[in-house]
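W.,

You were right to be curious about this one. When I first looked at the sequence I had no strong expectations either way, so I just let the prediction run and decided to look at it fresh. Below is the sequence, 288 residues in total, followed by the output.
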Amino acid sequence: MLKARFPNFKRVRCLCTVGQVVHTLPKGETVRGVTSLADEIYVLRQKARDQVEVYDIITYRLLRCLTVPNTIGFVDMTSGGHNRCVYIANGNDRCIYGLDVQGAGKWWCVNDKPSGLSVNAAHNVLVTCHEVREIKEFSSHGDLLRELTLPDDFINPWHVIQLTTGQFIVCHGFTGDTVHRVCKISRDGRNIVHAHGGQQDSDIGQFSHPRHLAVDNTGFVFVADVFNQRVKLLSPTLDYVRQVVAPDDLKSLPTRLYLDTQRRRLYVADNEFEDNTWTLGRVVVVSV
């Protein structure tokens, strides 16, 4: 099924993986995002209600579920410890929902279709809008602070993380696009400082739909390389370091990441794709 839908899809095997699977959260509806807040794991699923499952971060026991107002079109989730809030992006409504730990919330419009979320050092929410190649920065209350337009060759930017230096890490590229890369770009979004990738391929220096990112405290970058079924680790200058998650660690495709830097746990949304539809998903917890 994957080969028919994505002709460049290749199953890749590598013996250089460094990363140990320590737990797997239950299989269920497609996982659209994963994050943590206040020693709890939040898992966003595409379903009618109770979309956010909350687990204990030590025992992995399901504690409670939270319901988001709209049930269709979730694309990502992140959290802000400063505000003790979880942020959820809805692609259909083109809006962001903010939920506190009890599930009470607020929402605001993005006015473009979001594809990825992150929170920067100023506690503001960064929304990646892939169709218009923009990064939109909002306050935690939903006030639009600025918009950055990425260069023309950044086709389909999916996820952006801002470093403490003010620079950005961006992943972009989808099936049919000429370039699949992860780039470090300047604070104004105009200049590429470092880059990794190129044409869509399964070679260790290339990507096939780099979809989601995580960055540790020293600037190392984890990349969900979706159709190559792996998670790659890049140095702060975006040189290849190693493969962290291999195809044999997954049931299907890694589409979202979250890194718990304190516990050195990488959470990988592992989603199944069949007959042009995302069907089931689980979260694989990897010690890194």
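Here's what jumped out at me. Residues 2-287 form a domain with the Neuraminidase fold (CATH 2.120.10.30). And, maybe more interesting for your project: The first helix runs from residue 2 to 5.

Coffee later to discuss?

I.
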